[in-house]
Sequence to fold (87 residues):
Amino acid sequence: MVLRLKYFQSFTLKKYPAELSLVMWICAMGTVLNTIASLIMVRDVSAWKVGMDSGTLAAVYSVSTFDRLLLNQSFYNHGHNSQVLST
Fold:
C-alpha cells in the first residue's frame, strides 16, 4: 500500500512540480470532501452553531499565538535582524 502511494506521489510531483501549490490543492479538496461528509452525517443545525465560550476562546488564542510564533520563526530564518511587529 505504501509503495503504491509513493508511486502516485512521485507521478503527481513529476506532472505538477509546484509542491506548495499541490499541497494547497490537496488540503482544499480534503476540506471540501470532509465538509460534505460532515454535513451528511450531522444534520442537526444546532450542532453547527459556534458559541463564544472558553473552549472557542482558547482555540482562537492558541491559533493566533502559534501563527505569531511561525511568523517570527520564518522572519528570523530569512536573515532579518529586526523584530516583527506584533498585532
